[in-house]
Amino acid sequence: MTTLYIRYPARAGAIGGAAPACPYALAGDGGQLLQQGVSALGNLGDLIASARRVVLLLAASDVTLLRVKVPPLSAARLKAALPNLVEDQILGDIADSVMAAAPAPGADGMRSVAVVQRAWLEVLVKALLAQGAHGVSALPAQLCLPFQPGSVSAALSAGDHGLELALRQSQYEGLGLALSAQPEAALHTLRAMTGAGEAPVSLYLPAAQMPQYAALVAADAGLSAITLVEDHWAHWISASKSTALDLVPALGASGAGARQWQRWRWPVRIAALALLVNIVGINAEWLHLKHEAADVRAAMKQTFKAAYPNETVILDPAAQMRKNIAVARVSGGQVGPDEFTSLSAALGEALSVLPRKDVIATLEYRERALVVKIKPNMVDAAAMGRIKAALAARHLDLGEATPGTWRITLAATGSKS
Q1: Beta-carbon neighbour count of residue 274 at 10 Å?
Q2: What is the pTM of this model?
Q3: In terms of DSSP H, where are the helices of 33-157?
Q4: Of 80, 85, 93, 91, which Cα lies nearest the Cα of 68?
Q5: Whole-angstrom Cα distance, residue 65 to residue 73?
Q6: 348-378 pLDDT, tens digit each
Q7: pLDDT of residue 335
Q8: What count of other Cβ atoms lies within 10 Å of the Cβ of residue 47?
Q9: Whether 38 contacts 18, CB under 8 Å
Q10: Would the CA dihedral through 164, 169, 170, 173 be positive or negative?
Q11: Which residues pair with 27 in a beta bridge?
Q12: Is residue 54 within 8 Å of 137, Cβ to Cβ?
């Protein structure tokens, strides 16, 4: 899994409507640098889509870090109270700004609050999401500088319109300025902003600018507290992991916290198409079976009418046909296999296997079944097994409803004859 880091230049340095060049770096989960370069944001689509997460480092001059006294509030109440807490320190409409508070106040009860223009940040986040970003974070660049207590960290980088200065004074304090392209003046501005004392300053510079700035620092004793450090992505990546001041969640539904439905567009379409195909298939099969059933019923009614033209009411052709056939058999002197006479005769033949024939207490015929009550202790398990076998040979089933009570019915195979 990889993370794409993008340093977005200051808006003050933008020339016309041209897309600014953004330094970027692709890093693995262990922090190892996989790829780096400089490109416009619109040209990074492949890297943005392939990365697990995109971290946008906003120029320090575009993010204002305020120090405000915050009463002890829950996270939800603090979010609601932030506009009122910082309103007197912001020019313009507070609704046009996005605010995010540091996770914990300092020892003095003051808490840092990052403020950035809402419309501008929304455009950047939406541009990343449109290129397939899976998750977006936006951090103040000044808080992504390496920091050691008791010292100040700073970074100078050349932009299209001059120099960009980022300054970090504590864990959640920092600022940024857009300066003219005058290295010596930038160094003095940096020293003035860090105080007149001898607080050590670590200034991170691109490798190409190190010789020029080293000569300026060596020539001016007032700049002796500034230590020049060659800038590279490892510094920014390592420091950004300890910064919890993310501005994207404060965007609400416009930020990356909202589900990016475009990522699910094709899976949802495929699932909907599969569901539609299944529904159509099931309904088509149901209609086919319905037509088949109607055809079979029509054929049965036609056959029934041909056999019994005088029948006017036909509700169940198959049942009525069976009833009429049974009536015809009785009228013709034939006895059905499930009639009392047939069942009792078969039982009498089956009992012939017993040494004693007087085992029956009562004999009853109901619901096309012969119910026989046996005298106690007259038929053992072996004898009952022989009787069952004899009845099975005559296509009859013997079941024992209760002990000593037999129920003899026509077997399933016998019913077809």
Answers
A1: 10
A2: 0.61
A3: 45-50, 75-86, 118-130
A4: 85
A5: 20
A6: 888 888 887 788 888 898 888 889 898 888 8
A7: 66
A8: 21
A9: no
A10: negative
A11: 3, 33
A12: yes
